User: Fold this.
Amino acid sequence: MPVYKDKDKGTYYVSFHYEDWTGQNIRKMKRGFATKKEATEWERHFKEELAGDLDMTFENFYHQYEEDIRPKVRENTWKTKEFVVEKKILPYFKDMQMRDITVRDVIKWQNEMRSLETEKSEKFRGTYLRAMQAQLSAIFNHAVKYYGLRRNVAVIAGPLGQHHADEMKFWTKEEYMRFIPTMANKPYSYVAFELLYWCGIRMGELLALTPSDFDFDKSILSITKSYQRLQGRDVITKPKTPKSIRNIKMPKVVATEVQEFFNSIYALEPQDRIFTVSKSYLHHEMDRGVKESGVKRIRIHDLRHSHVSLLIDMGYSAVAIANRMGHESQNITYRYAHMMPSIQDEMAEALDEEWKEGFDVS
Assistant:
């Protein structure tokens, strides 16, 4: 038994040897346990994680997963993952042995998640349920790929929720033009919403912008970074995906508005963040503008959908829109297909003409 009592201090310690990944024999010692049971538990957990033993509990494996994955992802990405796991997954699975978790266990968890309600007594959105499932599946997939677990029971259990929300809200150009005058007396808000709507950028991309990101001679806006507020800190990261790094041609009137706005800011340096406001400030401003203008309330992110909708109405292709938005073209086609009925009509009319030409029917 590798657990011993320190008679001088009245505490327990663990001392044992193990073989590391190079085959070297290593001595491990850990002191200061209040009870023999605590020391024994620590020694067991250490050996489980060292061996990648899938007899370890889900909670212990999650900590191993965190050690493996966290250094590879953006900080805000990990925080999102961590929140979902600790609030929605760990409470259910934490004491189960990894190799003993069955498909039925996952289905029971799925049903429990479907029955949960928000603080407003509403069911969780399908997209949020899907995010829960994705995090659970990622943990099991890691166990399968690197630690010898036989199968990913979360995949076998099937989907929880849906890929996209039931309804994609957006503003028409007419609705936006009713909204934006309500921001006229607040330059920061006005320019922020102009960039969000007419350039289709994400909020994190907006809040990371500096004067050096603008080329007013060419009306080019360069998106190279994103802003997050994490645990009281301002964090600048790379954009959401590699394709999100892009140059956006601004409408000349918007470029002029931004340039005039810069000229009004005292001692603005090239690397200064322009919009030092919070996300909650922009949400509050949108609430104010909606109330004053009478347009329907949408999310800040829905301004991005509104930009895509405008481009579709203007007749641009999915490939052209994807390049501007920092998306893959197939994602644009899939997500916004319901906004493209006129394209289907045009295709049908063109095919009709081809049919008539083929059969020489006047």
Notes: The beta strands are 3-6, 11-19, 25-33, 214-215, 220-223, 226-230, 233-237, 246-249. The mean pLDDT is 86.
